[in-house]
Specification:
Layout: H1 13-22, H2 26-38, H3 45-54, H4 58-70, H5 72-76, H6 86-94, H7 102-116
Helix pairs in contact: 1-2, 3-4
């Protein structure tokens, strides 16, 4: 915070973003979001989508949707998918632009709904 250099790590970047938002440190917020955008993959896109909604980061949210739409099968089969919140799950379920085989998509959704209930 008192220097020009920011070093972020994958296992702490979300908590760092939370603190940066809480204490209104915009340059640290931007650095965290940039780090998350560059480390975005199909395997972490659902979890990052959920977090980007929580932190109200529309650019990161848009990038997550791009990845999820393009690589839905990988995203929906990722471990992080089971860790998303219910509102994010509802948004994904309503998404019509997912590139995923319908039968696999429905089976995955049913298994996640069982976990949430």
């Amino acid at each position: 915070m008192y220097c020009d250099e920011i070093t972020l790590e994958a296992d702490t970047v979300l908590s760092t973003l939370y603190v940066a938002k809480k204490y209104i440190v915009p340059h640290l917020c931007r650095a965290c979001v940039l780090f998350l955008e560059t480390s975005l993959t199909a395997r972490n896109a659902c979890l990052l989508l959920s977090q980007s909604r929580l932190f109200e980061e529309p650019e990161l949210m848009a990038r997550c949707w791009e990845v999820i739409d393009a690589q839905a099968q990988l995203a929906l089969n990722s471990e992080g998918f089971t860790e998303i919140d219910m509102d994010t799950l509802k948004q994904i379920l309503q998404r019509e632009s997912l590139n995923c085989k319908e039968v696999q998509y429905r089976i995955r959704m049913l298994s996640v709904l069982v976990i949430f209930t």
